[in-house]
């Protein structure tokens, strides 16, 4: 039964992080940084070629991004200050079209790329 669930998951068109995610790499990442610093680093990452920030609301800590290079994706980044100098970053990614071999691994890879970049720019908070 687990094999069938894994197969369905591989072809899932959405992937998101959360505090209690079963997969460790998809758990919410926390950083020892101000909200403004974390927000600007997420914005910097998604301002690179291949991405277009379609909408952002700094007041709500949300950014909507369209990945314009293949595979095309829609990304929502949520940045939340949990307390002074402690900020959480959650990411939700969905595929705009079917991906040969399944979308889930590519979506997960997209989240990992952002978290890797943030890990180099911000100090991770071990919760």
Characterise this structure:
By secondary structure, this protein is an alpha+beta fold. The chain contains three helices and six strands; from the N terminus they run αββαββββα. The longest helix is centred in the last third of the chain and has 18 residues, at 104-121. The protein is globular and about 45 Å long. The mean pLDDT is 89. This is Cytosolic protein.
Mind describing the biggest β-sheet? Answer: 6 strands, antiparallel
Instruction: Write down how many β-strands occur, each being a DSSP E stretch of 2 or more residues.
Output: 6
CATH superfamily: Kinase associated domain 1, KA1
The overall average pLDDT, rounded, is 89
* CATH topology annotation: TATA-Binding Protein
Low-confidence stretches: none
- The CATH class turns out to be Alpha Beta
Structural class: alpha+beta
Query: What is the alpha-carbon Rg in Å?
Result: 15 Å
Label the overall shape: globular
CATH architecture: 2-Layer Sandwich
How many angstroms separate the termini? 33 Å
SSE order, as H and E?
HEEHEEEEH
| Count of DSSP-assigned helices | 3
Total tally of structural domains: 1
The fraction of residues in strands falls at 25-35%
What share of the residues lie within helices? 25-40%
Protein name: Cytosolic protein
Short description:
This protein has 127 residues and is of the alpha+beta class. It has helices spanning 2-10, 35-45, 104-121; strands spanning 14-16, 29-31, 51-57, 62-67, 73-83, 86-95.
Write the layout of secondary structure elements.
Blueprint: H1 2-10, E1 14-16, E2 29-31, H2 35-45, E3 51-57, E4 62-67, E5 73-83, E6 86-95, H3 104-121
Protein name: Cytosolic protein
